[in-house]
Amino acid sequence: MPEIAYLIRPMEDADIPQVTEIDREAFPGESLFRPYTSYKQEIHNSLAHYIVACIEKGTGPKPSREDRQKKSWLKRLLGHHHLAISTSAVRNNLYSKEYIVGFAGFWTMLNEAHIIAIAVRNNYRRKGIGEGLLISVIEVATQLHANVISLEVRASNVVAQALYKKYGFRVAGNRPRYYSDNGEDAVFMSTDTITLAPFQAHFQRLKEAHSQRWEKIFTIQLA
Ligand SMILES: CC(C)(COP(=O)(O)OP(=O)(O)OC[C@H]1O[C@@H](n2cnc3c(N)ncnc32)[C@H](O)[C@@H]1OP(=O)(O)O)[C@@H](O)C(=O)NCCC(=O)NCCS
Is 167 within a domain? Predict the structure, then answer.
């Protein structure tokens, strides 16, 4: 199994060009925020929360033997899972070497978090990164006192629906002709109350299984 060390952190203005690239690749019919400035507005909107998953530049899905033997900057800097880092020197070092491979965004309204998007670059899919982003979304939404998380997803998007169902999202409705590019319906999905024990128990089990399966996830100051 290829090893990818990645870190999840809040999105910043400098990330917008790479995030826009991922957005256009992942949502060719309906890029979320076509104009560059819309992402900027989103990042600075206090109701919106955007995160990115980054790898060290030059590493990829199939690293050479030599690359695998090198200790990555992440491994050297962050010796263990879910470490919070605050010093600007370390942050600058991380930022200068990053390649963004995925992002996620959600809005909070009253006690609900509504997922706007989760997307991973084509070449980096099926490596646990989308799931890592969803785990972070759930964690941040919980910290922000959301009770439920909801989203719309294309009726044909069985891959994303599988990810959401794994985390306890259920189909709660249908939005006919929701997508303007091809008139496709959206499926509206929602969780049970995320602060209650049944959801949390299921979530903690999945989170633990994810960290066992995909050893290298590091999270920096998400909320
Ligand atoms: C949906 C998406 C974010 C998943 O990202 P990913 O990094 O490839 O997903 P992961 O490797 O973390 O997989 C997590 C789970 O997602 C589901 N999944 C992912 N790829 C799948 C596939 N090809 N077929 C079926 N299920 C799949 C599975 O439930 C998987 O869990 P498992 O490994 O235990 O089977 C990615 O496919 C993507 O960017 N798609 C385009 C954008 C999009 O449709 N976003 C969602 C709408 S908002």
Answer: yes
187 within ligand 1 shell (Cβ under 6 A): no
186 lines ligand 1 (CB under 6 A): no
Model's pTM, two decimal places?
Answer: 0.86
* CA nearest ligand 1 atom 28, residue: 163
Residue 164: active-site member? yes
Domain harbouring 124, CATH code: 3.40.630.30
Q: Which atom of ligand 1 is nearest to the CA of 210?
A: 34
Q: At what angle do helices 158-166 and 129-143 cross, to 10 degrees?
A: 50
Task: Tell me the residue range of the domain where 93 lies.
Answer: 6-219
Active site residue 152: yes
Q: Is residue 31 assigned to a domain?
A: yes
Residues in the chain: 223
User: Is residue 189 lining ligand 1, measured as CB closer than 6 Å?
Assistant: no
Q: Say if strands 98-109 and 6-10 run parallel, antiparallel, or are unpaired.
A: unpaired
Going from the C-alpha of 31 to that of each of 21, 111, 173, the distances in angstroms are 10, 27, 23
DSSP state for residue 35 in the 8-state scheme: S
Residue 1 lies inside a defined structural domain of this protein: no
Q: How many domains does the chain have?
A: 1
pLDDT tens track of the chain, all 223 residues? 456 788 999 999 999 999 999 998 998 877 655 555 588 888 889 999 999 999 987 665 544 444 444 444 444 444 333 333 333 434 555 555 789 999 999 999 999 999 999 999 999 999 999 999 999 999 999 999 999 999 999 999 999 999 999 999 999 999 999 998 889 999 999 999 999 999 999 999 999 999 889 866 667 656 5
Rounded to the nearest angstrom, the distance between the alpha carbon of 158 and the centre of ligand 1 is 9
Contact between residue 88 and residue 101 where contact means Cβ atoms under 8 Å apart: no
Q: 105 in ligand 1 pocket by Cβ < 6 Å?
A: no
